[in-house]
Amino acid sequence: MSDDEADPELLALLRQHFQGKLNLDSEPETGVLEGAEYVYDNSIDVALNMRATKNASAFIYEQMQQKEFSTESWSEHELHPKAKDEFTVAFIFTMDLLNFSFWSLRPEDERFAVSYRDKTWTGYWSLVASLQRALEEDIPITDPHYWQDEKECNIESLRYIFRSCTDEEMPLLEARLACLREAGQVLYEKYNCSFTKCIEAANKSAAGLVNLLARDFDCFRDEFRFEGRRKPIRFLKRAQILVADMWACFNGEGHGEFRDIDKITMFADYRVPQILATLGCIGYSPPLNALVARREILESGSSYEIQLRACSIWCVELIKREIKRQHPDAKVNAILIDFFLYDTMKQLEAQEKETIPHHRTRSIWY
After folding, report:
1. Cα–Cα–Cα angle for 93, 231, 15, rounded to 5 degrees
2. Tens-digit pLDDT profile for residues 226-255
3. Which 8-state DSSP code applies to residue 26?
4. CB 3.0-4.6 Å disulfide test: which of 101, 265, 291, 363 passes with 300?
5. 269 noted as active-site residue
6. What is the rounded CA–CA span in Å between residue 284 and residue 276?
């Protein structure tokens, strides 16, 4: 669209206004799915295989039924908090504030890992283990007051909190400190140092809470420009997974009650695209496939990376729709499908059965 062309969305808004149909109190929308569909429609490097996607939906539904996969599955993980209180709210906020970039180019026995409860944890679980370990050592890692205390919370203290049992340090440690600092300041200035206040401000809307996070916290504003579209493509991965984790942990009640939870999409990271490719649901152009196969870095915000993330969101949306079409009463949404696919991919990794590598992008977004 050139600068001389009228914005069709603005024209539609003005038309509604003059016709008396404009509803300023309409329900919040994140815009994530809309942007993902746009990228899918204009993608040249990532494509969906509709037959494989349909077959995958049947397989995924069957497996989720066999494993009785539901919100209850979240709390069944050994390291996830079990209490349903404000302490757990603070834990989940801290967890998803720092929930990004755990991959390593080193061999499995040399990558960043955390020893806790007589086990070795890698990836996302290394973060959760580190937080639990810090709390057991009376380090208030989930307290926004601590994040703002530069004497107590600094790069050296984070090196201790996230200490590895290998020689590799947790990636992007300084960026994680910056996230804690910013979040602490925003919570102090706007929400009485409590993420619970953010939840209350969203008025039980999942989309509203995602939008609030993206508006008030720079470190949650995961969006990028894509050629041909005036509005940015929104992914909001960590904002969305934060809402989803709250919903799953609290089983859709209390702090996890959201009337529009099904507006949350798949969380565009590197593991779910990997298993979608493994299932044949998505495919890459030869240049992109070569980059992924060689484990080369895809720059954050590059066309390749945006296409890969957006098409994965749209693919999971189509899987969800197909499951709903075949099983209208199924209690399934993009969140549960994402959780299931992520867990399945991690199991394949642990069994050394990965057939396709995941793409590699180093950023705070995932």
Report:
1. 115
2. 999 999 999 999 999 999 999 999 999 999
3. P
4. 363
5. yes
6. 11
